[in-house]
Amino acid sequence: MAMAALRREGRRFAISPNPIAAVRSSIFPAEEQAPLGVRSISTQIVRNRMKSVKSIQKITKAMKMVAASKLRAIQSKAENSRGLWQPFTALLGDSPSVKVKKDVIVTISSDKGLCGGINSTSVKISKALNKLTAGPDKETKYVILGEKAKAQLIRDSKKDIELNITELQKNPLNYAQVSVIADDILKNVEYDALRVVFNKFQSVVSFLPTVSTVLSPEVVEKESEAGGKLGDLDSYEVEGGETKSEILQNLTEFQFSCVLFNGVMENACSEQGARMSAMDSSSRNAGEMLDRLTLTYNRTRQASITTELIEIISGASALEG
Amino acid sequence: MLRRATALLTRPASSLRAARAFSTDVAEAPVGNPAFNEAWKKVIPHIDPPKTPLSFMKPRPPTPSSIPTKLTVNFVLPYASELSAKEVDMVIIPASTGQMGVLPGHVGTIAELKPGVLSVHEGNDVTKYFVSSGFAFIHANSYADIIAVEAVPIDRVDPSLVQKGLAEFTQKLNSASTDLEKAEAQIGVDVHSALNAALTG
User: Does the N-terminal or the C-terminal CB of chain B have fewer CB atoms within 10 Å?
Assistant: First the structure.
């Protein structure tokens, strides 16, 4: 520590003989360019740095492997759940641009970080949807699944958050758990339209933000009178003694739990995929950093050896001559 | 020179006949939601609009004028698509009013399912599943969508466990005190007696 201070003092009075080298190695100003003659103490700092970067690289590589294995496990389940929402869309169509009074945006995000930009994307889309559906005497509320979206949305929309559910992935995801959550949401939140925002897993490197709209039974009836895809709803008979509105109640609740289940599975897949690519790029960056540090280390080491040799030889030649 | 002239004359004729499709042409892409995309772009121009379920689904064929010969069945569960776009002759679904047979050309219906047996008839094969509950949509274009929460093939059901479950839930129903407990026990009794009937019937 004292040697480093002395070295720094020396540099202030002596102009560096090699200005280009000084600029290049400006990252480590105290370690190199020591005209006062240093021993191997300067390689210690570089060595410490190399050790820490190497351990970071090992950790990120391990995280990538873990994410890859989790992705394999969950990907097949997510792809199997894709058939679940298709019958509902075939029957009721998809009306994301419906105009209702009470909108609820259900944002699905992850609990853990280090997964790239998917949570920010979901939050961005949710905020944009909020802006899109805003209007006079309309209200938009948020229901948040996952810690990361809560952290981002609580900053500016704290009063709009109705419900927050975390620790979804403590136990492996299954339909029973998601239907309990859906039941909770349906009971506690008043809604005319539920918009579920999640990242759909297309491939290991591509995640598409998606919004699925589920309407409440009253809105479905209103829209079916208005016409369009839902207008065909009247042509369907209802089996059993129930009226159409009673069966629509059960139908929309079932649709919401199915859509939420698919959304949660797809988002979990996207999270693991994004984490895989984030950890992969950080291991690569750590590897490059390690290469640069190794070069610096070798240069420093060789310089100190050369200095020692020069001293010995000049000392020996002084004795002779 | 004359040869080239004739070649020039015949070339446009051949191109009029039938332009060959490129191999890079994408097959008919699923439709998105143009109205939503327009509204989005007006308010939020700098972010791409999110995708909607319609863009991930193949569009369904319209109602044909004559009754088709086969019924196309999609039988989906949360964990798997048991049957997806399978062409069968008939399905019998356990609707809340009883067993309902569905043939091609059936009128559009929405039916809620109760615990019971779903049988799929294809030629001479009959596959039976025990379905816990769910919904069935029958469309006018002879497409049937059956969504169930849980379904098992009948041969995977263990009779002794069914009897045990039935006894247990009947006892719970008798000793239930609150409405919630009564409802839960009633559901258990319903499912187990349906299982019983499915195994024997």
Answer: N
For B142: left if phi > 0, alpha if psi spans -120 to 50, otherwise beta; the answer is left
Contact partners, residue B10, CB within 8 Å, separation at least 6: none
Residue A58, sorted as left (phi over 0), alpha (psi -120 to 50) or beta, turns out to be alpha
C-alpha gyration radius of chain A: 31
Between the CA of residue A309 and those of A34, A41, A187, what are the distances in Å? Answer: 16, 17, 82
**Sequence-distant (≥ 6) Cβ neighbours of residue B13 within 8 angstroms:** none
Contact (CB, 8 A) for A231 and A149? no
Which of A94, A175, A251 is nearest residue B54 as measured by Cβ atoms? A94
Task: Note whether B187 contacts A: Cβ–Cβ < 8 A.
Answer: no
Q: Which residues on A lie below 8 Å from B146 (Cβ)?
A: 87
Whether A209 and A121 have beta carbons less than 8 Å apart is answered as yes
pLDDT digits (tens, 9 = 90+) for A69-113: 999 999 999 988 888 888 888 888 888 888 888 899 999 999 999
Which H or E run contains B144? Answer: strand B143-148
Q: What is the pLDDT of residues B121-180, one digit of tens each?
A: 988 888 899 998 899 988 888 889 999 998 988 888 888 888 888 898 888 888 888 888
Query: Is B92 an interface residue toward A (CB < 8 Å)?
Result: no
Whether B107 and A237 lie within 8 Å, measured CB to CB: yes
Strand-pair category, B151-153 with B125-131: antiparallel
Strand partners, B72: B87, B143
Question: What six digits make up the tokens of B11?
Answer: 């070339």
Q: Give how far A185 is from chain B: nearest CA, Å.
A: 19
Amino acid letter, residue B25 = D
Q: For residues A162-189, b (16+ Cβ closer than 10 Å) or e, as one string? A: bbebeebbeeebebebbbebbeebbeeb
DSSP string for residues in B3-25: HHHHHHHHHHHHHHH-PPPPTTP
**CB-CB under 8 Å, A237 with B112:** no
Report how far residue A206's alpha carbon sits from residue A269's, in angstroms, rounded to the nearest whole number.
Answer: 11
Is A210 within 8 Å of B51 when comparing Cβ atoms?
yes
pTM of the predicted model as reported, rounded to 2 decimal places: 0.81
The amino acid present at B126, given as its one-letter code, is V
* Torsion angles phi and psi, residue B63, rounded to 5: -65, 120
Is residue A140 within 8 Å of A133, Cβ to Cβ?
Answer: yes
ipTM above 0.85, yes or no: no
- Gyration radius (Cα) of chain B, Å: 27
